[in-house]
Amino acid sequence: MEHKSPFLQKFSIQEKFTPDVWLATTDDGTEVVVKRVFNFNNEKKTKNLRNEVRAGQLLKHREGVVQFLEHFEDPIFDCSFLVFKRIEGQDLFSFMEKTRFKPLKEDEVKTLAKQLLGILEDVHSAGIAHLDIKLENIMLTPSTNKLTLIDFGLCEIVSPSGSERVSSWVGSPDYASPEILMHRPYDPFLSDVYSFGIFLFTLLFGQLPFNFDDKANNLLVFKRQPAIEWPVASEVSVEARDLITKMLESCPVERISLEKMKKHPWFTSEPSANLSITCGLETSFSNTMVVSEQESCSVAM
Fold it and tell me: For the chain, where do the domains classified as CATH 1.10.510.10 start and end?
């Protein structure tokens, strides 16, 4: 049934990316993305929605983060609407998929990784842990080679000091940290570092570092993840491999922090100038711009 909320009358719906995510224009022609979230008196969904709205407000003017515009609750349909500024470009998963997951050049990855490191530092300093870092939630704008982090639907609002532990068992299984998969209270900032490590590995090698079933089984039986599956035929530097190993450390207290990552040799060396990362990238809008919570599930073993 078509949604008839009065709130939507202020927009002209241009395209439906999913049943609950739409491209729309305002009266002045500005393109926005409207995301609908049904409440259903669900405590978890209510918390996630509250956190996403609060994160949008706290990060509204931060560079590299999707710009949150407004939020509206519709008590008649028991749902909420979130409105975001449209981002030109494509999510990195779609980009890699188009190239059949051909690994990017190491200097290209370093350029992207430095951006994401800065974005995450900014987000964490505001007391927000994203908890769903993955290729699908990072947009690349071809005209500028700039990254934008999207979809804070699973985020946690915590103290910027990093002293808090959370117990929300969420995220995308392939990117989820061992402590999340084992249902242990965890430092959400260090879980973001782990997911960042999966992100780096995937761009550099064109594949995931673990088979998920093997990883889940090892965590269940041995309480540690299996060894990283390094591709044999690869020229990725020793420094990059060392950094990824530190980011994907099973034990969170031994995992490298964002602060220490900045000082790692891989990050302190400069990439080549004038890199063109977006070769062949269409200037199209990704369906995963503000992907609904259903796309990233609670993880369990």
Answer: 90-268
CA distances in angstroms from 190 to 108, 186, 247, 251, 254, listed in the order given: 24, 8, 9, 10, 10
C-alpha pair distances (Å), 185 with each of 9, 178, 195, 196, 221: 43, 11, 17, 19, 19
Give Cβ neighbours of residue 29 (< 8 Å, ≥ 6 apart): none
Q: What is the pLDDT of residue 135?
A: 97
3.30.413.10, 2.60.40.2310, 2.30.42.10, 3.30.200.20: which CATH number matches 6-87? 3.30.200.20
Residue 174 has φ and ψ, to the nearest 5°, of -65, -25
Answer yes or no: 132 catalytic.
yes
Strands 21-25 and 31-38: antiparallel
168-190 tens-digit pLDDT: 888 899 999 999 999 999 999 99
From 20, 74, 91, 132, the catalytic residue: 132
CATH no. of 90-268: 1.10.510.10
**pLDDT for the residue 41:** 74
232: amino acid identity, one letter: V
- Which regions in the chain score pLDDT beneath 50? 1, 279-280, 282-288, 290-295, 297-298, 300-301
For residues 72 and 50, give the distance between their C-alpha atoms in angstroms, rounded to a whole number: 12
CB atoms within 10 A of CB 32: 18
Locate CATH 3.30.200.20 in the chain.
6-87
CA distance 205 to 106: 10
